[in-house]
Write a structure and sequence with these properties.
Layout: H1 10-13, E1 17-20, H2 22-26, H3 34-53, E2 57-63, H4 88-103, E3 108-112, E4 115-116, H5 123-133, E5 148-149, H6 150-165, E6 172-176, H7 184-195, H8 228-234, H9 245-253
Parallel strand pairs: 1-2, 2-3, 3-6, 4-5
Length: 258
């Protein structure tokens, strides 16, 4: 969806299926300023109403930060559980979800796990920089998450859109994260193992990784999600995040500045 949603004509929205990924993208690193949030929520409310008036469907991309990840117990959150965000980005995602549900009864929200990709400033990029510099990492080995490669999440969105375009009468909240729980420490070990096959890394750096009080965890911290409803309604299965990781790391290691 274009950044300037006000420029989208009503004729384009007739019977359309619109994917709103803007908020999720903006909130990957930090929360919006209150004034900016107010303006964007108002613009989204107007746009969602226009979609409803044109019989258009809206799928909003959100994530599991609408639950309190700080109090994560290792259990999976399903779509029936009451949201209780513990972070400012989580509260802002919850606010946007509510705006959408207030404007149309055909809305869909797809919440993801912590997204990983070969672009931008994410976990993998930070870990590789530390490994190559021979710097130790203090990483949490207690809180599990289900890292979700962006390409896997796009696969799910595409599959849902295909079925909605063919008349699937689904609405409400759905969850998706890739399969395979992992702590930040365990994930870094896997990244190191793949990267060491492609790069000359300092010997023994993986042993310098540690977990404990005050150590780094997932950022953003997103609890694990139950994905059964997505499988039941759309037939979309979870795929393991490990299957995507070699290709992501290979692309990063082959960049000119690596």
């Amino acid at each position: 969806m274009p950044a300037d949603i006000e420029s989208i004509g009503d004729d384009v929205l007739v019977d359309a299926c619109v994917v709103d990924a803007g908020f999720l993208s903006q909130l990957q690193t930090q929360a919006l300023e209150p004034a900016e949030l107010t303006v964007l929520l108002a613009a989204r409310r107007r746009f969602y109403r226009r979609c409803a008036a044109s019989a258009g469907r809206v799928m909003l991309l959100s994530d599991g930060r609408v639950f309190d990840a700080e109090n994560v117990t290792g259990n999976e959150y399903d779509e029936t559980q009451v949201v209780s965000p513990g972070s400012e980005p989580g509260k802002q995602l919850q606010a946007l979800e509510q705006v959408l549900f207030d404007t149309t009864d055909t809305a869909l929200v797809l919440r993801s796990g912590p997204l990983i990709a070969g672009e931008g400033e994410g976990f993998i990029q930070r870990y590789l920089q530390h490994f190559q510099a021979g710097q130790p990492l203090q990483l949490d080995n207690e809180i599990p998450c289900c890292p979700t490669p962006l390409v896997d999440f796009v696969r799910v969105v595409s599959g849902m859109i295909d079925q909605l375009s063919c008349g699937a009468n689904c609405h409400g909240v759905y969850h998706y994260n890739s399969s395979g729980r992992s702590t930040a420490y365990e994930f870094a070990e896997v990244v190191y193992a793949f990267a060491s096959q492609l790069l000359s890394l300092p010997e023994g750096e993986v042993q310098a990784l540690a977990s404990g009080e005050g150590s780094q965890s997932w950022s953003p911290l997103v609890p694990m999600l139950d994905c059964e409803r997505l499988l039941s309604d759309f037939g979309i299965k979870q795929l393991p995040w490990r299957a995507y990781l070699p290709k992501i790391i290979k692309a990063l290691c082959e960049e000119p500045d690596k």
